[in-house]
Design goal:
The complex is a heterodimer of chains A (about 250) and B (about 325). Chain A has about 250 residues and is mostly helical. Helices cover about 80% and strands about 0% of the residues of chain A. Chain A contains 10 helices and no strands. Chain A is globular, with a radius of gyration of 18 Å. Chain B is an alpha/beta fold and about 325 residues long. Chain B has 2 domains: about 230 residues, Rossmann fold, CATH 3.40.50; about 80 residues, Alpha-Beta Plaits. In chain B, a hairpin with a 5-residue loop joins strand 1 and strand 2. The two termini of chain B are about 30 Å apart. The chains are: A mainly alpha (about 250), B alpha/beta (about 325). At the A-B interface, helix 1, helix 4 and helix 10 of A face helix 2, strand 6 and helix 3 of B.
Chain lengths: ~250, ~325
Amino acid sequence: MLRLLWVGWVMHMKMLTRSAFNFWLGIVYPLFFATAAFFMFQSGDDPKPLLYASLGAAVMGIWGATSTAAGAALARERWTGTLELLVTAPAHFALILLPVTIAMATIGIYSMISTLVWGRLVFGIELEVGDPLAFVLAVPATVVSIGALGFLLAVAFVRFRQAWALGNMLEYPVWLVSGFLVPLTLFPDWVRPISWALAPTWGISAIRGAALGGSPYGDIALALSLGAGYTLAGILLLERALRTARVKASLSLS
Amino acid sequence: MNVVEAVDLRRTYKTTTGTIRRRSLEVEAVRGISFAIAEGELFGLLGPNGAGKTTTIKMLITLLIPTSGEARVLGHDVVEDARWVRERIGYVFGGDRGLYERLSAMDNLRYFAELYGVEPKGQRARIDELLELVGLKGREKERVEGYSRGMRQRLHIARGLLHDPPVVFLDEPTIGVDPVGARELRATIASLTASGKTVLLTTHYMFEADALCDRIAVIANGEIVAQGTPQELKAGVADGSVVEVEVFGVEERSVERLRQLAGVRAVTVEDQEQKQLLIVQTAPGLELTHAILSQLDGASVGRVSSREPTLEDAYVALVTAA
């Protein structure tokens, strides 16, 4: 099982890194967000707000790559006819789908690095990490939990032909209510439960906690727990989604 | 023992039309077809585009759930035992799709070997063996995006055979491949039954079905209109004859009049640059050449000839009668 996940991840990473579209999506595109965020937070001499924005923009890149690219990747699998081949493979479909979304989230690390380097070179933002061990744990925990959320979305992408649009549609609302740039305290109370149910909320909180000072380990655990929950829900829904897709004939375009 | 069985298999698609006033439509793609394929047999499903060949194959390989009827592979129901069936079947389809373009052929095969549960220790040897079989040895490290249509098709076949399935489904595997490439592919397909595999092949190339298949089912409008060996199907029209007429500018109403002519079984029109070739199948014992020519008023007539019917004529007669 681990071997299948590993080989799937390697193959999808190879495909993504060879795509010019994903290069722009993963590296150049997030720099526009980061630049806007840096100008918004550039006030006074205190460097902390800028680092706050820098980390938020960096995680936006991971989420952006996962939500948009996972939808695009599944749509591409459908257009190129490989989705049908994946479904007719004897391996459990969750083990085929999970590496696709984890690979997307991994590509997001590129955007995280490029955002941080951009902030350092252009805006002089130093990345001073208060708790390096927690930071090293928080980043992969965020990547994996965002990948798991992408997996849950991918179940919808498999079932519905037009669901890739959902990924694009969810990109901005999720980074808004996850507190990537705007503190959650500014939102109305009814938004809070939505934020709490989203792993990116706890992921960015853990990364910021590790860098700026705080207690990130609880946030890391919450991000990973939510990620595990998404994965379990995805696996349970997947069999039903696949059966319905076989009834509705929505696995291919022909 | 029957390896593949379809019993009164039906499949309906629901579709909608219109933008503002949406109307729901039901399309019957497969209308109660039944057939059985014996072990080691190469069975052909022959029919025009839209006849229901691909829908039938997709039900048998567990991609579509039948609206009604039953289908079994190696005695197991394709709906209830889908995973069991998937472990024992290979699926190859024609055209450019179904491969990861940005990966090399080797990476494509490695990935699918993993998905199909090929033992890690034996993967390399199996991939080498298949690359040799399909003639891609030495090209396996190149990205698929640079492959020709024929090379892609051969890679498809290698992918479908990775887990050494006893049953192989080939959906129009030679479509769009150049004549030399198609001939090589047919040789590979023929070698599959020689190695004991049971093969279901869909095609709309008559000569391909004639050359490869032990038995053929002709499918039209979602129904099987004839079933038998290529010789049996040819015998169905062997008692008649075929009149071929070269014409310039024949009108559709003239062709329609020909179809109504007593003794005419089927009429097809092939466009050949500036002229058309009318192929008229007639009942035995009738000399209809004069009657045929008299219906072509206004059209210039070129060469006229008559010949014995072929499998293609049998197919045309069956499909046009459906």
